[in-house]
TrEMBL record:
Protein name stated in the entry: Nucleotidyltransferase
SUPFAM superfamilies named among the record's database cross-references: Nucleotidyltransferase
Keyword Mitochondrion belongs to the record: no
Keywords, comma-separated and alphabetical: Antiviral defense
Top-level taxon: Bacteria
Length: 214
């Protein structure tokens, strides 16, 4: 088997199965319903973001830490610190998911279900900008889904090989336990460096040689 055939085979195994997609979709719908029921008008928006929305999430069978990022946008007219909203999300999860594992992981509340993990991210919005916890007790600005277009453009311009390449490198990153770069940083570096078409690349091997992030 050639290196490219091996990479192609690996890439095909790093895509969510239809069953897994359906289970995650059902869990997202349930989460949204429970958030609305619990918080009512105290939340302004709620939506998924991150690798799940970009189609670069890894299946749980290859990455136990695979998760869905989910933003919950609160009214923060009282200028509360992030911990206030983290506490509210933790109480929500403990109330609505009493048999699940729930804990705070720095600026998020982690909700672990049998088939997927959610990272609940509190936020507020001011003048079109979202603010999320910075991990140090304060807020920082973010544009949660802006990067998605960059990845889509890079993928479209390069024969739809960039998303599979991202998943391959993320999988390798998990296997070697290399944590200098986060999953998001891996995606961002690859997408921005390969935004334009590389006409000399026709295989995963070509792209892997063309671009090294380490």
């Amino acid at each position: 088997m050639s290196v490219n055939s091996y990479l192609s085979s690996c890439a095909s195994n790093l895509v969510l199965s239809s069953t897994e997609k359906d289970s995650i979709s059902t869990s997202i719908n349930t989460l949204e319903t429970r958030l609305t029921s619990y918080f009512g008008y105290n939340i302004k928006e709620k939506f998924k973001f991150g690798s799940y929305t970009r189609g670069t999430i890894l299946p749980r069978k290859v990455d136990d830490n695979s998760d869905v990022d989910y933003m919950v946008v609160f009214d923060n007219s009282e200028n509360y610190k992030p911990q206030t909203f983290l506490n509210r999300l933790k109480k929500f999860a403990e109330t609505k998911y009493s048999t699940s594992e729930i804990y705070q992981s720095s600026p998020t509340i982690v909700l672990e279900l049998n088939h997927i993990k959610f990272e609940l991210v509190p936020a507020y919005k001011s003048w079109g900008t979202y603010y999320i916890p910075d991990g140090k007790g304060g807020w920082m600005a973010t544009y949660p889904n802006d990067f998605n277009n960059t990845l889509v453009e890079a993928n479209n311009n390069n024969s739809y090989k960039i998303k599979p390449l991202v998943r391959l490198i993320k999988h390798w990153n998990v296997n070697v336990n290399y944590h200098d770069l986060t999953s998001y940083e891996i995606e961002k570096i690859i997408s921005e460096n390969m935004k334009y078409a590389y006409f000399t690349c026709t295989s995963y091997t070509d792209y892997a040689k063309k671009h090294s992030i380490y």
